[in-house]
Amino acid sequence: MHAFDIKLTQAPMMALHFKLADPQAIEATLAHKLADNPGFFDGEAVLIDLNALAADAGPVDLPALCALLRRHRMNPVALRSLDPSHLAHAELSGLFVAEQPAKPQPQAQAPAAAPAAEGVREVEAVKAVPTAQPAMVVDRPLRSGQQVYARGRDLVVLAMVNPGAEVMADGHIHVYAPLRGKAIAGAKGDASARIFTTSLEAELVAIAGVYRTSDTPLPPDVQGRPAHVRLEDDRLVMAPM
Amino acid sequence: MTKVVVVTSGKGGVGKTTTSASFASGLARKGHQTAVIDFDVGLRNLDLIMGCERRVVYDFVNVIQGEATLGQALIRDKHCDKLSVLAASQTRDKEALRLDGVERVLRELSEMGFEYIVCDSPAGIETGALMAMHFADEALVVTNPEVSSVRDSDRILGMLSSKTQRALKGDAPIKEHLLITRYNPARVQDGQMLSLDDIQDILRIPLIGVIPESEDVLQASNQGVPAVHMEGSDVAEAYRDVVERFLGEDKPMRFTEAPKGGLLSRIFSRK
After folding, report:
1. What share of chain A is helix, strand, coil (3-state, %, to 5)?
2. Is the pLDDT reported for residue A100 higher than 80?
3. Which residue out of B147, B149, B157 would a mutagenesis test of the A interface target, given it has the greatest number of A Cβ atoms within 10 Å?
4. Mind listing the pLDDT tens digit for each residue in A180-238?
5. Rounded percentage of chain B residues whose pLDDT exceeds 70
6. How far apart (Å, rounded) are the C-alpha atoms in residues B86 and B151?
């Protein structure tokens, strides 16, 4: 029996995009934002993003900044910056260096976000959990050769998925019509993802990398019937609904 | 407003050219100025089926490349004076087709007064097929009642709704019509061929007609006469029904039931 298993997982975190590095300015902004909502930060993991710093902002005292954030009940864990001089001190401050985002992050504002002020541009919730964003909804039939990928969220399909079509999602997949093509849920490794359909006739189902083709016929209680597929102990379990 | 209608299928040999010839002829018979264009560059067939292969001097590629005018390339059909044929090139290949060239030709045909432009697509999903469907307003998706044809038609439907001008511009989608060809009700009953319901279950687009399997089609192409002109033939009747439904008339589906009666009557009723 192993002491631990290694699995891919994701957790939500906040990102603070700094425009100024001056501690006093930062304290002032924090005071302003937390005035209405003192409990806003409650030990959240925080990513320090320095990409928006003005060119003449001067050197950043990372350890001091981290201490400041911790005093305000934040937990700085990551650093993001294109400036190598910032990255040099990351390890010293116990921060891991996060990748640059591929494209602008989706805007999912944290509930109590005040309008942007000097020190901190906006408190942006970088949501990495698959089900945090609203599901992608597809309402046209998916024909042979077509593919849909719901990145970072669930997928809802309201029309048939024909043989030769592929539906993929990082989260759950719901097909409210015959599912005849391939369905791949939990595409990034989320083993809690499920597949739901009103008529299970899929060529292939997969959850978090564990897959099954219809080469072996599906059990009669789910074949062509409303069913849902989940992963249990690395085995695909199909149950009628 | 000129309507561009593509006759496509994905699968080869299902009856696209036969349909293009008869559908275009049917529209012309009803009094509409119609042009039919062969997009199968290098493997041209439309001119043979239409019976005008000996009159092809200039072709579609010549017009696109500015080597001839439309007036020089269009061939007036012998059977209907409201129908004109634009043959494909036999010596060039599909690289000679260009989207801007195709667009220009379609626009010129529209300016010349054609009400319907029927585009006979080649098989497959490559350049020729994509060009034929790109500017379409409506589509006849020709399908045989068997699994590989249905799968390919499904693929083509996916492309009609995503790779065409209407799809790319976000305009009203192409109006899709399912045309089932080579339908043999007896074999459907025996379970050897897919039924209309089976096909509809997968493709789910409105059915515009069913053309029965018939030796008349081979005879027609041998004679260079579009099947719709063969008086008394089921195929001709079926294609006429298709044209009428396309123009808005409500006609019940024919030729979908196996002939009733005993073995003898079935033998004697075989065409």
Report:
1. 10, 35, 55
2. no
3. B157
4. 999 999 999 999 999 999 999 999 999 999 999 999 899 999 999 999 999 999 899 99
5. 96
6. 30
Residue of B nearest to A142 (CA): B158
Between residues B239 and A130, the one the model is more confident about: B239
Interface probe, candidates B155, B178, B200, B203, chain A, greatest A C-beta count within 10 A: B155
Chain B residues close to A141, C-beta within 8 Å: 204
The CATH number assigned to the domain holding A67 equals 3.30.70.260
Query: Does the CB of A224 have a partner CB in chain B at under 8 Å?
Result: no
Chain B: closest CA distance from residue A166 (Å): 13
> How high is the pLDDT of residue B223?
94
Among residues A41, A67, A97, which one ends one of the domains? A97
pLDDT, position B266: 56
Distance from CA of B253 to the nearest CA of A (A): 26
pLDDT at A118 over 80: no
- Number of H helices and number of E strands within chain A? 3, 16
Task: Quote the pLDDT of residue A222.
Answer: 95
Report the SS3 class of residue B251. Answer: coil
Each residue's pLDDT tens digit, A3-48: 888 877 777 788 898 888 888 888 888 888 887 777 778 788 899 9
Instruction: Tell me the chain A residues in contact with residue B160 when contact means C-beta distances shorter than 8 Å.
Output: none
Judged by a CB distance cut-off of 8 A, whether residue B195 touches chain A is no
Query: pLDDT tens digits, residue range B127-177?
Result: 999 999 999 999 999 999 999 999 999 999 999 999 999 999 999 999 999
- CB spacing of A162 vs B162 below 8 angstroms: no
Contacts 24+ apart (CB under 8 A), A21-24: A21/A50, A21/A53, A21/A57, A21/A58, A21/A59, A21/A60, A21/A61, A21/A65, A22/A119, A23/A61, A23/A64, A23/A65, A23/A68
Distance from CA of A207 to the nearest CA of B (A): 26
Q: Domain range spanning residue A175?
A: 136-240
Q: How many domains does chain A have?
A: 2
Identify whether residues A140 and A235 lie together within a single domain: yes
- Give the CA distances from residue B93 to residues B98, B100, B129, B243, in Å, rounded to whole numbers and listed in that order: 12, 17, 13, 32
Q: CATH number, domain at A205?
A: 2.160.20.70
